[in-house]
Specification:
Shape: globular
Strand content: under 5%
Largest sheet: 2 strands, antiparallel
Number of helices: 10
Structural class: mainly alpha
């Protein structure tokens, strides 16, 4: 199974969690590794991998959070911007309710944090989603359209803890990658 690991890590999560080992064994400088990651992300996205951008891993951590934290190793956020350009939601929260710009993942003097700041304040609909979560409104049972429920779930730390909607589409991705 190419894209998903049985312990609920998709391929992109696996790459970012094991970034230090990849750097050590590849023996490339940080700039080269960051560029390779960017190309790798783009290849997976072109093959249909957008659906895994905002998924949580088995630990309730989203890909953008992992990439933000790992950008401290490479001292560049080039691939973080690539994830956002492809659709990773910057205000999506982990199991603790923290975004990728939280100090747990991103130091305030890092290039990644500067990039996050350059994106400007959160859109109003993100504030609305966080308010729905904070006020414990039953958004999943109100008959809201699926795209709105999915969007609010990105802002709900309880959903990051209980994600049960991991999509297995590795055969499709494998076929698409082979055709690139």
């Amino acid at each position: 199974n190419f894209l998903f690991h049985p312990k609920r890590y998709n391929l992109l999560h696996f790459v970012f969690w094991n970034l230090q080992e990849l750097i050590y064994f590849a023996n490339y400088d940080n700039t080269t590794i960051a560029h390779i990651l960017k190309i790798f992300i783009e290849a997976v996205m072109k093959a249909g991998g957008e659906r895994c951008l905002n998924m949580v891993d088995k630990d309730g951590t989203r890909l953008l959070h992992i990439a933000s934290k790992q950008s401290l190793i490479l001292k560049t956020g080039e691939y973080v911007s690539t994830l956002i350009e492809w659709g990773a939601h910057i205000d999506a929260v982990d199991y603790l309710g923290q975004t990728a710009a939280h100090p747990k993942y991103c130091l305030r003097n890092s290039p990644t944090y500067s990039y996050f700041l350059s994106l400007g304040p959160s859109p109003l609909f993100c504030y609305a989603a966080r308010t729905i979560v904070r006020e414990h409104l039953p958004y999943q049972t109100l008959g809201l359209p699926n795209h709105i429920v999915s969007f609010v779930k990105l802002h709900d730390p309880q959903f990051a803890c209980k994600e049960k909607e991991l999509i297995y589409f590795s055969v499709e991705i494998n076929n698409n990658l082979n055709n690139l």
